[in-house]
Amino acid sequence: MPRVRLDDRAIVSVSGKDAEDLLQGLITTDLDALAPDEARPGALLTPQGKILFDFMISRDGDALRLETTADQAEALLKRLTMYKLRSAVTLSLDTSTPTVIAFNEPQASGYRDHRFEKAGAAVFRSYGEAETDAASAADLDQLRIVSGIADSGPDYALQDAFPHDVLMDKNDALSFRKGCYVGQEVVSRMQHRGTPRRRVVIVAGASALPPSGTAITADGKPIGTLGTVHGTSALAIVRIDKAGEAMANGVNLLAGGVTVTLTLPAWTGLAFPTTADEASA
What we know:
alpha+beta
């Protein structure tokens, strides 16, 4: 029953009678669909539709818990404070409570991580001191790779990626039905026009892969960048139209000097297009 304690996380708590209404009009996640026993991914976007902050959101009694990386937490708190104005909302920051992740443990206690659930894996998040075992963050990274789940920092930079790039349209982090929120017009337009071209892929190398940040190339031209790397496997965000065209034409894909194959996570239902204008939403 692998359990990993993450000390580089922080929690922004949003409470008060207007808390849910405030967040529903700001973030990408549809809170009406958030069950009491689950944690769902979400983001606060820029007006241009890029990811400004990302987090896992869950219910903590009458409050809402936004678990994020420690380096985002204070800025997220300040941004929410700016938006709350005179709403009956209380915001607080907790940097001392660790996040504990249990995986390969179907009956674990805690909040079901909806991202992994979509990918067919049992992963639970809990908050506070808890018993852990010999599992490491690297073990969790390996599970993220095989599941096709990207994290900001190792896999993409905040303010540089659109939600579609990191599969938020596929893991229920992105709502197209709940109404307006920051950046909603841009992501809705991308969804309905079928224009997303960059996507998370699972990378398999013919030998040990080079470090994170190495370009993936097709015929010498960059089409993406390695993110989290674990031996011969990795995550990457690539142009799936360029990758599909290269694969259809028998062009080798390389990461540094290592031959790689790319796979779209099966749970997404996505496929590589064979021409630049066939990219799937």
